[in-house]
Amino acid sequence: MSNEPGTEVSEQQEPAARHTGSGPGRILVGVYGLLALAATGRSVLQISEYFQRAPLAYILSAVAAVIYLLATAALAKGGRTWTRVAAVAISVELVGVLAVGVASYVDTAAFPDKTVWSHFGQGYGYVPLVLPILGLLWLRSLRGRGRASRA
């Protein structure tokens, strides 16, 4: 890797310490991947078999699955652009789990079955509630390291 004038360093050549999928980020990628699979499977089953019972809940479950897939890919890829994508996806995830969590207690008829975000992720051991907080903290720690390494 050369820092000669006229030579640009690509996002792929960033130091490993700044990569979202390194260190504790590997655990986050793994957990996000697992939740992506679980949420996808559950939402596909619920939409295909029970859609009339709770269409909004099952559609939101599918949205959660897409967000988990996007967050998994973005965290695994790393780099400046993908880190931003991960931050947005994880932020939307946090808002979603909080909103659906509250809604599932307020309007129990709309959420007759467990979904990934209903009751704040109770059916998944509250991992959907804790994971976006940990993800945002991880991304924030990487941003802080980037500033320190440029100083």
Give descriptors for this structure.
single chain; disordered C terminus; mainly alpha; 4 helices; 151 residues
Can you tell me about this structure?
The chain is mainly α and 151 residues long. It has one domain (23-141). The protein is built from four helices and no strands. Helix 1 runs antiparallel to helix 2, helix 2 runs antiparallel to helix 3 and helix 3 runs antiparallel to helix 4.
Show the helix and strand layout.
Elements: H1 24-50, H2 55-77, H3 79-106, H4 127-150
What radius of gyration results from the CA coordinates? 18 Å
Mean pLDDT: 87
- Cα shape: elongated
Q: What count of helical segments does DSSP give?
A: 4
Query: Residue ranges: pLDDT <50 for 5 or more in a row?
Result: 11-17, 147-151
| Portion in strands | under 5%
Structural class computed from helices and strand pairing: mainly alpha
Helix content: 55-70%
